[in-house]
Design a protein that fits this description.
With 345 residues, the chain is an alpha/beta fold. 41% of the residues lie in helices and 18% in strands. It has 2 domains: 8-212, inorganic pyrophosphatase (n-terminal core); 217-342, Diaminopimelate Epimerase, Chain A, domain 1, CATH 3.10.310.30. A hairpin with a 2-residue loop joins strand 9 and strand 10 (285-292).
């Protein structure tokens, strides 16, 4: 039996909102990952099967290796279908905000969501949620937002609401947000949920291959280049850095998803505790990905130096500067967190 995570009061509130709602919109964060897409589509299927008028709007496109997920073709993207997306947000009775703790994480869609009179319902596992939401179900102990969707829909509609399609979406979200259950996944409830998902007939090995064995040739060539030419190790700090400029991304014909997981790879080096990946998406705009192991708080680094945040072992941010300036900022971060990085206790 699962331990209670979402309160009975919140379940009752959401049930009442759904009973009264004519139109529902589900939204997640910009640059959606496996958990953002998996949780959104899982909730979409459950609400649609319950007879609700529901749409999924994401700020921009997700990686191609997630396009096999059931009903992924039904997702609307704000950046390419802005007029229709705005219409949905403004006419919604309820907007479910999944896998982000600040409206700003929805990118350009954030002001429209804020302006909407819809009841904003947060379902998320990132720490320190803002007070921008009418109903807040924030649970940092959850391994993923997909786990929370499972808990929510089974509380609302029972285990039968988790169909084969829903199970595939939830498992994908849980798997990708834990690095295939390599981190943030020691709680027994996670495996009780997985057992229920397997009982729905999903093939977890096939899902793994669809996500992790589905990259482009350019990704493989990029990987070789990164490991040989772009990986810098700071042994003094048990840390590493990968940088990719906009020109380098163009050189390897990088498409969305090709850089997925690169930031995790240096942590396979003996003694590494902290990994940073600086990716220049556009000249002067740098995406920051941070990963760590054990107790090193990379979310504290993200908040202090990179205008970001996230989980203790998986965080990110964004910079508006040159790559040289970003690397200098990373060096300052290492010096500032030297004691934590070199603490072997």
């Amino acid at each position: 039996m699962l331990e209670e995570m979402i309160s009975i009061n919140n379940i009752a509130t959401v049930r009442d909102l759904l009973d009264k709602s004519g139109r529902i919109v589900i939204v997640s964060h910009k640059n959606p990952d496996g958990d953002a897409v998996g949780s959104s589509l899982a909730l979409y299927h459950c609400l649609k099967n319950a007879g609700k008028n529901v749409d999924v709007v994401l700020p921009n496109a997700f990686p191609e290796f997630l396009s096999w997920l059931p009903s992924s073709a039904d997702v609307l993207f704000y950046d390419t279908e802005k007029e229709r997306a705005c219409e949905l947000f403004m006419s919604a009775d309820v907007i479910f905000c999944l896998d982000f703790n600040l409206l700003s994480r929805a990118g350009d869609a954030a002001p429209v969501i804020a302006e909407s009179n819809a009841v904003k319902v947060l379902l998320d596992h990132h720490p320190f949620p803002s007070d921008e939401f009418c109903v807040s179900m924030s649970h940092p102990d959850a391994c993923s937002t997909s786990e929370l969707v499972y808990r929510l829909v089974t509380s609302l509609y029972g285990i039968d609401a988790v169909t084969y399609d829903v199970a595939q979406c939830i498992y994908t979200g849980m798997m990708t947000d834990t690095g295939a259950f390599a981190y943030a996944s020691t709680r027994k409830d996670i495996y009780l949920i997985i057992a229920e998902l397997l009982a729905k007939g999903i093939d977890k090995d096939k899902i793994y291959r669809r996500v992790f064995y589905n990259y482009s040739l350019s990704r493989m060539r990029l990987l070789g280049y990164v490991m040989n030419e772009k990986l810098k190790v700071y042994n003094k700090y048990n840390a590493s850095l990968i940088t990719l400029t906009h020109d380098e991304l163009m050189r390897f014909y990088v498409v969305k998803g090709d850089t997925e997981g690169l930031v995790n790879m240096p942590l396979q080096i003996k003694g590494m505790r902290f990994s940073c990946f600086l990716r220049e998406e556009q000249p002067g705009k740098i995406n920051v990905s941070l990963r760590s192991v054990d107790d090193f708080p990379c979310n504290a680094v993200a908040a202090k130096f990179f205008n970001g945040g996230g989980h203790k072992n998986a965080s990110g941010g964004e910079l508006r500067c040159t790559m040289k300036e970003a690397v200098e900022l990373f060096s300052k971060a290492l010096q500032d967190f030297k004691a934590e990085l070199t603490d072997n206790g």
